[in-house]
């Protein structure tokens, strides 16, 4: 199949394959340059399929050696990546022998070599680079895998399932035989071979069965595996406790590799991870890194049931496993953080996790919904499936799953999960099957809810309020719609939107809410309204007679992935920021207040005017800063300004330079106005005793380092001295790297000295050097232009374009994480982007396509930038060879 093949695959055309593969017996003779794979399959023709229908298997980059059918040489043709076999019988055994060159496989899909070890990545369509196969998720088979290799070079041989046999072979070789008793699709196949060591632990699950857990890494990384092991154990315990889902294999393995396109992969029983999400210790990993390891280990383990035991019928159903499992890992992370302290700390931890998730959703997924790659949670078509591993499928998909829990509660959601597994364990199914299980388990009609899967774009809910003080009645009118410039041809019909609301009295207390047709016993301070029509009015009764007009708290806990249109004035937002009992909406009020001020300032600066920050905003932030009753982690979130990327998306025509200037000015004003408070916060939030990556300690460090960052905005030497001292004395990476960031922002000789020292300290720690590259790529233009720094770093001996982590650390950090410098008026950033997309396209199309998406929203920007972006896109379109990149750039150009 040509890389430029324009074939578009449509969901409506789905048909089951004419043949089933029941068992697979794979034998690998591993060699870096010539690995021989013998694939023996028991194949059955489906009922009703004509006997003369040929079997067609997919392959890519394979050298065919032999094909036998029931032990006899078979009639077969190999062309265009398809192996056609004239079977002519209802069931048969087919053996296909091929060889491939793993060392030359820079795409990191299929079987490849990293640092002398063998690894695989098969999702979505990598298995066809290993052997000819019906490489689709609805073909589920049991696998027996035998690995043979040189024992000295590859002492460890791993695959899915349980190890049943191993031993020596002639000529210094050895073998290992693995059997996976659970039927699985080919995308869940995995093998690993090399010089690795493991942290091992045996635990007992709830029924007393022992389970062997292993975290495999290169020898020098073994001391950094304890947190990953603890996270795996916590994940196993949580899934049993929360959902009654046990670990079903005798062992569970995690393997870390430095060359990996994604974060991790949930292969049955043998999860392969990017080292970024396994390795962690206090000297090399930040609090965020520790939290990410826990979340990603949890995510991949939870796939054991939501993705592996029940998998996707076709790739259009990708959110069936990914949206559901993201929701599960979000809940897991919230529960892990909440379990550390008292009730107030627990509530704060849950709110902070929700804030983090929604902040990312709004910044990335809402932008995707508004761009040329907009698609529903369940796409209707694709040209390259790798391009649909998107924030819409994952994060918006998780929000769709969360709405089931919002509608039915935890108990109702659990009933739906139980029924889902009861009906579909061992099957490849659809998003509709999951929705039906939720509906049936809760006696609900969820036909309208299907639209969340089939409609693209971010819904908007316009809110109107009216208060009859004399009658104690409050009317809330909700209108749902999409933006007029929505870029999608999918329907725009009314959705079922769970819309959570509260009302605050003049003292900031929650009012009990009862709808006009309900008994008094139904009153609660937060009500989830079911918005099902284009417009609905809800009336609350029994409110205080002749009371002050209540302040509405809308979409509490972000109960649906929508944009709320309601014109709060600054005073109301400041009031909610100070008083709302819903911690998410308290944060939301501050973000709205800051966003409004920043956009006004950016518009003024873009027009050449002088911008000023409202004192209402300054005072509101000061009150949060001074409120010691708030958990440090929450204060850190509340005092962190909206990102430049998010702000640019809120403008009619994005002007990154003006946004950066406005945000810098606001940070400077908040630093100046509250300098004494920032200093007090910095001094009061030291963490004493040994380092612990707990939510409580991490929150204290986060607030303290935020204070240091604000102090670094002041035009005096005191902050530099604080940062230098913290950098020198830090006993953990969080504090050291935060101090380095503050010094880099201040600039000067001290910053350069610290950057050089940091490199010398950690030059043999790849993940830390990724941070070093990223920090420099994300600095604003100063005495030296950042693009010049990036080009200089591109030639640094530690930079390697073939390594996805390193490419992301420098190139992606500059192009996607530094809007003002990247969008320079001279288009130098765009020229660099085009060069790197084309260079990566020749090596690793999947990574290249992700970089290509940086310019997909080019029409959103001010006219002075568009020509440079369009020229860069045209250059890439003319030179790109892969389907991955051509699909993205083609849609961007329209």
Kindly describe this structure:
One of its GO terms (biological process) is proteolysis. One of its GO terms (molecular function) is metallopeptidase activity. The chain is built from 26 helices and 32 strands. By secondary structure, it is α+β, with helices and mostly antiparallel strands. Helix 8 runs antiparallel to helix 9 (about 585-605). The two termini are about 25 Å apart.
How would you summarize what this structure contains?
The protein is an alpha+beta fold and 894 residues long. 49% of the residues are buried.
Give structural attributes.
about 900 residues; five-stranded mixed beta sheet; aminopeptidase; 26 helices; 4 domains; globular; eight-stranded mixed beta sheet; zinc; about 40% helix; zinc ion binding; Neutral Protease, domain 2; Immunoglobulin-like; about 20% strand; hydrolase
Low-confidence stretches: 1-5
Principal-axis shape: globular
**Major sheet: arrangement of strands:** 6-5-9-3-2-12-15-14
Helix/strand-derived class? alpha+beta
Quickly give the CATH architecture of the largest domain: Sandwich
Q: How much is the radius of gyration in Å?
A: 28 Å
Helix content: 40-55%
Distance between the termini: 25 Å
Continuous helix count: 26
EC number: 3.4.11.2
Organism: Chitinasiproducens palmae
Protein name: Aminopeptidase N
Enzyme class: hydrolase
List the helices and strands and how they pair.
Layout: E1 9-10, E2 19-29, E3 35-45, E4 55-58, E5 63-69, E6 72-73, E7 76-79, E8 82-85, E9 91-100, E10 110-114, E11 117-121, E12 141-150, E13 156-159, E14 162-169, E15 173-184, E16 191-194, E17 197-204, E18 210-217, H1 226-243, E19 251-257, E20 264-265, E21 270-274, H2 287-302, E22 311-312, H3 318-338, H4 343-369, E23 381-382, H5 391-424, E24 428-429, H6 431-442, H7 451-454, E25 460-468, E26 473-481, E27 497-504, E28 514-515, E29 527-531, E30 535-541, E31 551-554, E32 563-565, H8 570-579, H9 583-606, H10 615-626, H11 632-638, H12 644-650, H13 656-673, H14 675-684, H15 695-711, H16 718-729, H17 733-746, H18 749-762, H19 766-777, H20 786-794, H21 804-817, H22 819-822, H23 828-843, H24 845-852, H25 863-879, H26 883-893
Parallel strand pairs: 2-12, 18-19, 19-21, 22-24, 25-32
Antiparallel strand pairs: 1-23, 2-3, 3-9, 4-8, 5-6, 5-9, 7-8, 10-11, 12-15, 13-16, 14-15, 17-18, 20-21, 25-26, 26-30, 27-29, 27-31, 28-30
Helix pairs in contact: 1-2, 2-3, 3-4, 3-5, 4-5, 5-6, 8-9, 8-10, 9-13, 11-15, 12-13, 14-15, 15-17, 16-17, 17-18, 18-19, 19-21, 23-24, 23-25, 24-26, 25-26
């Amino acid at each position: 199949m040509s890389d430029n093949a324009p074939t578009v695959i449509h969901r409506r055309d789905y048909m089951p394959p004419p043949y089933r593969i029941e068992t697979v017996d794979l034998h690998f003779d591993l060699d870096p340059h010539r690995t021989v794979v013998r694939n023996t399959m028991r194949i059955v023709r489906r009922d009703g399929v004509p006997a003369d229908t040929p079997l067609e298997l997919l392959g890519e980059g394979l050298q065919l050696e032999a094909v036998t059918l029931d032990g006899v040489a078979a009639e077969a043709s190999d062309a265009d990546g398809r192996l056609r076999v004239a079977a002519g019988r209802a069931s048969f055994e087919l053996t296909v022998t091929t060889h491939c060159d793993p060392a030359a496989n820079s795409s990191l899909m299929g079987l490849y070599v990293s640092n002398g070890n063998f690894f695989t990545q098969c999702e979505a369509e990598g298995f066809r680079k290993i052997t000819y196969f019906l490489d689709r998720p609805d073909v589920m088979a049991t696998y027996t895998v035998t690995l043979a290799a040189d024992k000295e070079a590859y002492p460890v041989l791993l695959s899915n399932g349980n190890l049943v046999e191993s031993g020596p072979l002639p000529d210094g070789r050895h073998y290992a035989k693995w059997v996976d008793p659970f039927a699985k699709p080919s995308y869940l196949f995995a093998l690993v071979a090399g010089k690795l060591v493991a942290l091992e632990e045996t635990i007992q699950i709830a029924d007393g069965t022992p389970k062997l857990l292993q975290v495999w890494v290169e020898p020098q990384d073994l001391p950094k595996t304890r947190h990953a092991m603890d996270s795996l154990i916590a994940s196993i315990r949580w899934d049993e406790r929360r959902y009654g889902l046990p670990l079903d294999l005798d062992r569970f393995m995690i393997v870390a590799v430095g060359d990996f396109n994604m974060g991790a992969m949930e292969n049955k029983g043998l999860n392969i991870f990017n080292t970024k999400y396994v390795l962690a210790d206090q000297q090399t990993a930040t609090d965020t890194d520790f939290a990410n390891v826990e979340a990603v280990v949890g995510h991949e383990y939870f796939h054991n049931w939501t993705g592996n035991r029940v998998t996707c019928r076709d790739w259009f159903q990708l959110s069936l496993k990914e949206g559901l499992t993201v929701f599960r890992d979000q809940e897991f992370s919230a529960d892990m953080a909440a379990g550390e302290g008292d009730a107030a700390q627990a509530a704060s931890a849950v709110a902070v996790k929700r804030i983090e998730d929604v902040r990312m959703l709004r910044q990335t997924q809402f932008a995707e919904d508004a761009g040329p790659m907009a698609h529903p949670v369940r796409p209707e078509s694709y040209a390259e499936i790798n391009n649909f591993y998107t924030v819409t499928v994952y994060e918006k998909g998780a929000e769709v799953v969360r709405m089931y829990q919002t509608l039915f509660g935890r108990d109702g959601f659990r009933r739906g999960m139980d029924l889902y597994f009861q009906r579909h364990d061992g099957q490849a199914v659809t998003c509709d099957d999951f929705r039906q299980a939720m509906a049936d388990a809760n006696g609900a009609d969820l036909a309208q809810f299907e639209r969340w899967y089939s409609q693209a774009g971010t819904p908007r809910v316009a809110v109107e309020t009216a208060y009859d003080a004399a009658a104690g009645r409050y009317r809330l009118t909700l209108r749902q719609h999409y933006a007029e410039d929505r870029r999608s041809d999918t329907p725009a019909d009314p959705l079922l939107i769970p819309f959570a609301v509260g009302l605050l009295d003049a003292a900031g207390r929650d009012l009990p809410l009862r709808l006009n047709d309900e008994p008094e016993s139904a009153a609660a301070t937060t009500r989830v309204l079911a918005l099902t029509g284009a417009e609905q009015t809800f009336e609350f009764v029994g409110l205080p007679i002749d009371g002050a007009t209540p302040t509405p708290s809308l979409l509490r806990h972000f109960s649906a992935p929508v944009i709320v249109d309601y014109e709060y004035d600054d005073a109301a937002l400041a009031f909610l920021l100070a008083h709302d009992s819903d911690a998410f909406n308290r944060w939301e009020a501050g973000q709205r207040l800051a966003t409004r001020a920043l956009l006004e300032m950016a518009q003024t600066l873009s027009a050449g005017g002088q911008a000023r920050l409202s004192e209402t905003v300054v005072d509101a932030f000061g009150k949060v800063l001074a409120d010691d009753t708030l958990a440090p982690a929450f204060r850190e979130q509340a005092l962190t300004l909206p990102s430049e990327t998010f702000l640019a998306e809120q403008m009619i025509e994005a002007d990154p330079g003006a946004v950066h200037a406005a945000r810098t000015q606001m940070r400077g004003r908040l630093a100046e106005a509250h300098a004494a408070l920032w200093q007090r916060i910095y001094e009061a939030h030291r963490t004493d005793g040994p380092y612990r990556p707990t939510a409580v300690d991490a929150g204290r460090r986060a607030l303290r380092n935020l204070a240091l960052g604000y102090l670094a905005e002041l035009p005096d030497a005191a902050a530099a001295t604080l940062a230098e001292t913290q950098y020198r004395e830090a006993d953990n990476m969080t504090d050291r790297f935060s101090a380095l960031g503050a010094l880099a922002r201040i600039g000067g000789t001290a910053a350069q000295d610290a950057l050089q020292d940091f490199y010398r300290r950690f030059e043999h720690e790849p993940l830390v050097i990724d941070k070093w590259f990223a920090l420099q790529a994300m600095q604003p233009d100063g005495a030296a232009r950042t693009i010049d720094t990036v080009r200089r770093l591109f030639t640094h001996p530690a930079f390697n374009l073939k390594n996805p982590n390193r490419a992301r650390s420098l190139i992606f950090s500059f192009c996607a994480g530094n809007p003002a410098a990247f969008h320079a008026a001279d288009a130098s950033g765009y020229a660099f982007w085009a060069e790197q997309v084309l260079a990566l396209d020749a090596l690793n199309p999947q990574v290249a396509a992700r970089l290509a998406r940086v310019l997909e929203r080019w029409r959103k920007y001010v006219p002075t930038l568009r020509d440079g972006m369009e020229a860069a896109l045209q250059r890439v379109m003319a030179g790109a060879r892969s389907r991955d990149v051509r699909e993205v750039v083609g849609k961007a150009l329209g």
